Amino acid sequence: MAATAPAAAGRPQGCTHLKLRQLGRLVARHYEAHVAPTGLKNMQYSLLSHVVKLGPLHMGALAAAMKVDASTLSRNLAPLVARRLVEVGAGSDQRSRLVGATLAGQALREEAQQAWKRAQLALNRRLGEARVAALHAALEEAMALLEAPVETETALCTPSLGAPARPAERTARAVPMAPAARPARPTNGAST
What we know:
By secondary structure, this protein is mostly helical. It has a domain at 16-147: Arc Repressor Mutant, subunit A. The chain is built from 8 helices and 3 strands, in the order H-H-E-H-H-E-E-H-H-H-H. The chain has helices at 16-35, 42-54, 59-66, 70-82, 103-127, 129-147, 152-156, 167-174, and strands at 57-58, 86-90, 97-101. A 3-stranded antiparallel sheet has the order 1-3-2. Strand 2 (86-90) and strand 3 form a beta hairpin. It is globular, with a radius of gyration of 23 Å. The model is unreliable at 162-192 (pLDDT under 50).
């Protein structure tokens, strides 16, 4: 795939969500190539690392630390439990569960951590340490901004989005098109 020229500084070009997903897939493949020989997927390595680092902890606290929802955590925890790398036990009450790493899990995490370090160093070499550091800073700042509470006027008017919409414009955008005004769908089987 040919490299594209970077957009001029200032206005973003294209869909940020799509660009982040594309970058995420490329970075995931890079790390997966290094970590896969340990038998772990990237998310499983990250999960195992958090459990080892943070010690036995409640599943809710683990999900919060990893910034994932409960179903994602459960789905990725299951293979680690099946391989006896982590254990899930009773928590402080009947509804809570504690997650802890087994000795085998701690040992595999050490092995996988070495693979992860090789992946990180290879990525640093490929992209350049200054670019990786700038990327980390930009991502941390973006996450902090997105996690912060949003004030109504701030959400409507940010430096990159221009002036806020007038109340009538906000209302008009929220109203769906009437059925008669909707474009007709092709009936000949052609897709749009």
